[in-house]
Amino acid sequence: MSILKSLKLTTAQPVRSSNDPIERARNKVIAALAEQKAMAEAKIAGQHYAPTHAVWRKNNEGQRVQVEAPKRLRAGWFVDAGGQTFFGLRYAGKPIEFAKDKNAIAVGELSALPDILDTLSEAVRAGELDTQLVSAAAERGLMLRKAS
């Protein structure tokens, strides 16, 4: 009896991630908003949020090895002089305008931020910020082409 005949053979293809640039931008922003939410929840709980990611470094022998390093994150929220908290979203190095000349969301207290980030994630999933994300990515692309 053949060894291959003992296996269950079928036709299948791997699931590919989307090649759609708008879908990639949405997924990237949603992931960033999830990190912001985790950071805000840790801040509210009085804890330090320090995610890590894998990076390649050379060890003492000069070989490249993969190690865990702290990820550099910047809080998307800030507090003004009056003590009110605001949240601003950045994509492709540019602040995103939610409406004409409105680039921040008034949060009030920091404890309300996780719910606002959930609402913002739903808006991104629904495609409400697609035009802003595309224009920010296009500006970034033009800037990088000029520098080359």
Please describe what this structure looks like.
The chain is an alpha+beta fold and 148 residues long. It has one domain (19-147). 38% of the residues lie in helices and 19% in strands. It has helices spanning 21-45, 113-125, 130-147; strands at 52-58, 64-70, 77-79, 85-87, 90-91, 94-95, 105-108. The strands form three sheets. It has a three-stranded antiparallel beta sheet, with no helix packed on it. The protein has a two-stranded antiparallel sheet with strand order 1-2. Helix 1 (21-45) packs antiparallel against helix 2 (113-125).
Q: Rounded to an integer, what's the Rg over CA atoms?
A: 21 Å
Helix content: 25-40%
Which outline best applies?
extended
- The structural domain count equals 1
Profile the largest sheet: 3 strands, antiparallel
Structural class: alpha+beta
Low-confidence stretches: none
Major sheet strand order: 3-4-7
Mean pLDDT: 88
**Strand residue content:** 15-25%
Blueprint (SSEs and pairs):
Layout: H1 21-45, E1 52-58, E2 64-70, E3 77-79, E4 85-87, E5 90-91, E6 94-95, E7 105-108, H2 113-125, H3 130-147
Antiparallel strand pairs: 1-2, 3-4, 4-7, 5-6
Helix pairs in contact: 1-2
Could you give a quick summary of the protein structure above?
This protein is of the alpha+beta class and 148 residues long. Helix content is 38%, strand content 19%.
